[in-house]
Amino acid sequence: MIRKWLSFALFACSCQAFALQDTPPLEASSSHYIRDDLFIFMHTGPSRNYRILGSVEAGTPVTVLGSDSDTEYTQIKDNQDRTGWVESKFVTTTMSQSEQLPMISEQLADSQANLQQVQQENARLRQQLNDARQKVTQLTTQTEQQASEVSRLTAQVERADKDELVTWFTRGGMVAGAGILLGVFLTYLPKKRNRSKEWM
């Protein structure tokens, strides 16, 4: 049983040492946070051997004042204006979830509002498209009707022209025939005698 506990403790220490090796150095700035998955103790110096000033809750924004590369501790100033040292691996530049949530909620609300506006605009454009299609269909029907009417009137005008031409030919023929008959008739009329010839 003791061996199991010792093995577990050794494994935990090795994991912690591995995590400490992968921790990148932190630059001094106010845009740092305590990781969300834990709470840590703040010490008066860069080691666990120093007195504990108190705990820092997960997600707390802190200001990095400096770091000690030998002990992998970072000096911070928390939101309660306390200055102390914490393990560097527990300090991150990622904003805490508690602070991200209102921003994400606001972004989500803005996105939903924008989506609703886009959907309304899309519906309006679809209605305009349907109206335009109906107008095009109506105009196409009117154009076809007008084309049909133009064809009918054109055919009617052509028939009227043909009828008028036939009428003129008929009348011309009748006038010519009447002229011929009149000429023939005048040819056979008796001529009047000259009175001067009668007295002789």
Automatic annotation (TrEMBL):
GO terms for cellular component: membrane. Residues 101-149 form a coiled coil. It comes from the Bacteria. The chain crosses the membrane at residues 168-189. Residues 1-19 form the signal peptide. It is a single-pass membrane protein. Pfam families: SH3_3. It is found in: Membrane. InterPro entries: SH3-like_bac-type, SH3_dom_pro. Keywords: Coiled coil, Membrane, Signal, Transmembrane, Transmembrane helix. Residues 29-95 form the SH3b domain. This is TIGR04211 family SH3 domain-containing protein.
